Amino acid sequence: MRALVFEHSLPRWAASRAASAVAGTGRGVRLGPLRLADIEPLALPGPEWVSVRPRLAGICGSDLATLDGRSSRYFEDVVSFPFVPGHEVVGEVVGAPPAPALPDGPDGPDGHQQVTGRVVIEPVLGCLARGIVPPCAACAQGRTGRCERVAFGHLQPGLQTGYCTDTGGGWAAALVAHRSQLHPVPDAMSDEAAVMVEPTACAVHAVLSADVDEGSTVAVLGAGTLGLCAVAALRHLALPGTVVAGAKHPVQRRLAASLGADLVVEPGQVRRALRRQTRSLSVGGRLTGGADVVIDCVGSADSVEEALAVVRPGGKVVLVGMPGTVRVDLTALWHREVSLVGAYAYGQEAGGRRTFDLAFGLVADADLGRLVSARYPLERYEEAIAHAGAAGRRGAVKVAFEPGQRGSVAPARASREGRPGLGRPKGLLP
Length: 430
Hints:
Number of strands: 18
Number of helices: 13
Distance between the termini: 23 Å
Strand content: 15-25%
């Protein structure tokens, strides 16, 4: 089957890093460790697993960081090579799903439905998928994003589908998934909308982690996919008083406003906007007051520094964008007693609500399928990744692969429309 395979190659990784630094995000892929290959279909790891044929698979900011050689060495022990990227996936279950070994009601022994047809993958490879009994404390509570066993069990290491050699990923003709990872897609939901569920779940988890008080002033830094989904989540799942969004490109500013941001400004104007909104003073460029909550959807040293400069004393900064290795002066964190919170993945939220259930609802209510801008066949992966790397500048948001298609690139459909080898060498960033 056809697949885009990310291999272990330090020279190619270094070449990709250098090229992307000169030419821009996504431009180093031609020199990097990613290649289009014909590989053998993956074996099912166990009786609770199924094959899934991807219909659409998104290109995420973390994928771009991996391809550009900018990911943190933190991940070296929780991925396995070679792997097929792609964790934002809507696909079709191939063949009949397995029956629960120990039936316990209509949803099986662990509360997960038997799913056929179109599905969205919840990519975290927690204890249940890894066959670990008893599960770790986090998985036992449904907080799979905090799983303590992502390098253990009967699978090769891999924090998610798309970073594990045993499961494959969405950038291929097929992958394998544990039935607990499958979420049925409603018939009325388009593939474009469905592929937005996973990134929307990340934003939902971040907004709920922020614990926004009614009437609060919230700033969202960055208006790519995560930032726009965060704006939508704030308006649908919280009761902020004012949402201020920093957006670099015109299409991002228009979308942020349409999704519920009260004030949308260019990134360099966020401090000024919040100073006026909160009637703060400024000392050394830092606000004396500021936003109650800042949601950083960029994850760079500059964005973290900006977040600390515009959050009020006692406020909260939520990191949603993957920060990697950054150098930031944290004196303000100490002096102003600011809470710095990481928001990774999803699972079960406070009150027992599953993040993916909330994300399905938000995608439909906010029409987030419209954020999918273009679909590419795997053969045109260099163009697709370059497009994703320059999405904002080119008037796009989400770029996705359509593994079942060959040949030309396709524009996204209307959002309301109906429907390798093993091994684990170290020294290469995921």
